[in-house]
Amino acid sequence: MARRLNLGVILALYSAALCAGGETTWFPGGEATRKAVEARRGNTPLSKLAIAMKPGTWAELETEMPARLWSAPQPSKGLHIGTWSDDAHWDSRTGQFLFFGVRQTRKFVAYREKTNAWRVIEFDGAKNAPELKQQYGHQYSNNSLDAERSRFYTGGYRYDLLTGGWEQLPPAKPGRNTMVYEYFSATDGLLSLARQPAGTLRFYSEDRQEWSSLGVIPVHGYHSLARHNPFRREVLFAGGNDSRAVVILSKDGETRRMKDFPVPLTVRHSIVTVDPSSGRYLFMVPPEKKFFEFDGEKDEYRLIDDFTTTP
Questions:
Q1: Which residues neighbour 136 within 8 Å (Cβ) at sequence distance 6 or greater?
Q2: First-to-last CA distance in the chain?
Q3: Cβ proximity of 221 and 240 under 8 Å
Q4: Is residue 195 over pLDDT 90?
Q5: Per residue in 84-105, pLDDT tens?
Q6: Are 44 and 20 in contact, with CB atoms under 8 Å apart?
Q7: Sheet of 246-250: strands edge to edge?
Q8: Of 309, 293, 296, whose CA–CA distance to 15 is shortest?
Q9: Other C-beta atoms lying within 10 Å of the C-beta of residue 32
Q10: Given this model, what pLDDT does residue 5 score?
């Protein structure tokens, strides 16, 4: 069944389209990823659409999508798994766009570039996989991707896209629940931001196989967003309830407080991705009808579109 993508999915695929259709000299994942991307370039609907696009324009990708793909499985009443989350990720090596969501029950879905189709990745009962049921909450910013190894994370669980196996990390230090996880390839480990009253940042080292504290940052973690930027070797944390704070964590472990975001920013409505051509951040804020670019190097925001003339 052919389905059109909603606005959030279109933006999340935006950076994938740039890689699929444009020229770039480096990909996370090394030579194996570069060869895989080159093999798909110009040979898939996504790549062909990206190549045909002009700068400053939008386009819609039509895909094959099973009915009720975004509905949580039973015993949930079919609630949408994508609410209160911006956290889908593109894996260039396998050519997949992946989202793990939850509304009373969990569901793992993926778009595959080669087939231009969506599917469900079943995990219920798999060894070391998350449980199917979760009574409360949403996905928030709990998904992340180790693009060097093609491993998808949801909280402290990770799924190997090459082998199909699950692993579970040891739990972080007890504290208030976190709504933010992000993998940081430059330091080879997983970041966790524990929420209010302060944003306590913790780091799981792949080398040491243990958690450590990186201290408190101005982003408090309650409905906040995070995005790994492999092109600039940094991670951005932003927003949350009643906060426009923006912080960048460098590969050396230093944090920089940036200028506050221009408008209210929470994971409930907002979406952030990274432009692989420039390394700048792209923010879609639907309640404000605004699309921003943020240059972390210059600490500058630029309004790209307010949709007054854009279809």
A1: none
A2: 25
A3: yes
A4: no
A5: 998 899 999 999 999 999 999 9
A6: yes
A7: 225-229, 234-238, 246-250, 255-257
A8: 293
A9: 13
A10: 43
Nearest-angstrom CA–CA distance, 178 and 200: 9
For residue 4, is pLDDT > 60?
no
7 has pLDDT over 80: no
Residue keyed to tokens 């009373």: 104
Cα of 26 vs its chain's centroid, Å: 19
Whether the CA torsion 107, 8, 50, 1 is positive or negative: it is: positive
Domains in the chain, CATH or no CATH each: 169-311 (2.120.10.80)
Q: How many residues does the chain have?
A: 311
The tokens describing 233, both together, are 């070797």
Average pLDDT on 255-274 reads: 95
Report, as an integer, the average pLDDT of 144-169. 97
pTM for the structure as a whole: 0.91
Query: Could you give the count of Cα atoms lying within 13 Å of 26 in the half-sphere of its Cβ?
Result: 10
Long-range pairs, 166-175, Cβ under 8 A, ≥24: 166/123, 166/126, 166/127, 166/128, 166/129, 166/130, 167/128, 168/128, 169/204, 170/204, 170/209, 170/210, 170/211, 172/202, 172/204, 172/211, 173/202, 173/211, 173/213, 175/200
pLDDT of res. 25: 57
Strand ranges for 37-142 from DSSP E: 62-64, 89-91, 96-103, 105-112, 117-120
Could you tell me how far CA 141 lies from the centroid of its own chain? 8
**Residue 189 forms beta bridges with which residues?**
184, 205
> Six-digit token pair at 308?
């007054």
| Whether residue 124 has pLDDT greater than 60 | yes
**Taking 80 as the threshold, does the pLDDT of residue 161 lie above it?**
yes
DSSP character string of 201-224: EEEEETTTTEEEEEEEESS--SS-
